[in-house]
Design brief:
Helix content is about 35%, strand content about 40%. By secondary structure, the protein is α+β, with helices and mostly antiparallel strands.
Length: about 110
């Protein structure tokens, strides 16, 4: 499994992926790792399942769709990020960092 790690505001995120046939399994975690949401990107569309009480669905849904549209790979994207006492501006930075990490992943896949 390959990975990219980045830090934002002292909070570390880890993006890991591996090929499964022609598809891609991607996980994005940070802080207390868990399964918060899972999205599938397929044929330019994406769907998401969110576990009750979690708010990881926006990142999972957006990034699964982006990876699928850019690479053509069916993509399963699992997100589980939890940092205690996180503030709204920190959430925004985490979303921006996730976007950059997925940009790097797409560049790697397209090489």
């Amino acid at each position: 499994m390959e990975f990219i790690e980045k830090e934002t505001g002292g909070r570390k995120l880890s993006l890991k992926w591996r090929n499964i046939g022609d598809g891609l399994l991607v996980t994005l975690t940070g802080g207390d790792e868990h399964i918060g949401a899972v999205a599938v990107g397929n044929s330019g569309a994406s769907s998401v399942i969110t576990l009750p009480g979690h708010r990881d669905d926006e990142i999972a849904h957006r990034q699964a769709g982006r990876i699928n549209r850019k690479t053509g790979n069916d993509t399963v994207f699992l997100v589980g990020i939890h940092f205690n006492n996180i503030q709204p501006d920190e959430i925004s930075k985490i979303c921006d960092t996730a976007e950059l990490m997925v940009d790097e992943l797409i560049d790697i896949i397209e090489e």
